[in-house]
Amino acid sequence: MRLIFVYNANSGKVNSIIDSVHKIVSPSTYSCALCAITFGNFRENKVWKNFRERSETDLEFYHKDEFQRLFKSKWLAKFEFPIILASKNEELQIFMTKEELKKLENVESLLNEIKRRQSDY
Q: Taking the CA of residue 42 as centre, how many other CA atoms within 13 Å lie in the half-sphere pointing to its CB?
């Protein structure tokens, strides 16, 4: 199994700067719960980075524009971002939805939920 994390943000330095400013100025209207949990205003969360570097599960990370470009298909379901997908036997399944990610309070709750759900696969 592989987990695919898709952020509700576009790639590139300018977009990164805009996202950082948005998180600072108006965090309640920031539209990427996954970004907010895994990254602070300017750098990756240390707990998240440790998990990511030590995970035995294959993890892939995409901005939404990268994901849409690489996985574009008329048969692929339309996803709301951010999202975490599971790829098993080359099929994409929803692992955690945008709404579920919004409910998480911090990186620890994300990690606990990932571990819990992995045991179901």
A: 0
Residues with Cβ within 8 Å of residue 17, at least 6 apart in sequence: none
Domain-wise residue ranges, the chain: 2-118
Average pLDDT over residues 86-96: 89
pTM: 0.84
All residues at 6 or more sequence positions from 121 whose CB lies less than 8 Å from its CB, including other chains: 1, 86, 88
| Spatial distance between the Cα atoms of 19 and 12, rounded to a whole number of angstroms | 11
Taking 60 as the threshold, does the pLDDT of residue 66 lie above it?
yes
CA angle 86, 89, 95 (to 5 degrees): 15
Instruction: State how beta strands 2-7 and 91-96 pair.
Output: unpaired
pLDDT in tens, 7-24: 998 877 765 666 665 565
Q: Are 103 and 34 in contact (CB under 8 A)?
A: no
How far apart CA 23 and CA 35 sit, in angstroms, is 9
